[in-house]
Amino acid sequence: MEDRYKKGMEILKITNKDAINGLFDELEDIAPDLGRFIVEFPYSEIYTRNGLDLKTRELATVAALTALGTAKGQLTNHINAALNVGNTPEEIVEVIMQMSAYAGFPAAINGISAAKEVFKKKDLLPLRNNKK
């Protein structure tokens, strides 16, 4: 079990080390095991599988969380993680815009709002997207 936790923490340090403490602080007094489950399952068992690199996994996660439309905190964390593993702001915006066709415009607008929040904090605005 400790190996799974260690393996998951290594991935978290690569993708979003700034979010680790916040996650544990948020859960410590009510559900500390949930933090451990998050480290041991998605980050240890899923993120370390062969077949996709971390850049692609984070972009897929941004798409899924955008489509859900109900997970702004997790979406902003994963937008930050996507940047940390090499995705560009333009790639993140494009995958969120793609979700408008599958999850609807409200979900895409909320996703863009979350991206803008992260980009602003990282001084990555304004973006200069070119239309087709």
Automatic annotation (TrEMBL):
Residues 32-117 form the Carboxymuconolactone decarboxylase-like domain. GO terms for molecular function: peroxiredoxin activity. It comes from the Archaea. InterPro entries: 4CMD/NDH-1_regulator, AhpD-like, CMD-like. Pfam families: CMD. PANTHER family: 4-CARBOXYMUCONOLACTONE DECARBOXYLASE FAMILY PROTEIN (PTHR33570), GAMMA-CARBOXYMUCONOLACTONE DECARBOXYLASE (PTHR33570:SF10). This is Carboxymuconolactone decarboxylase-like domain-containing protein. It comes from Methanobrevibacter arboriphilus JCM 13429 = DSM 1125.
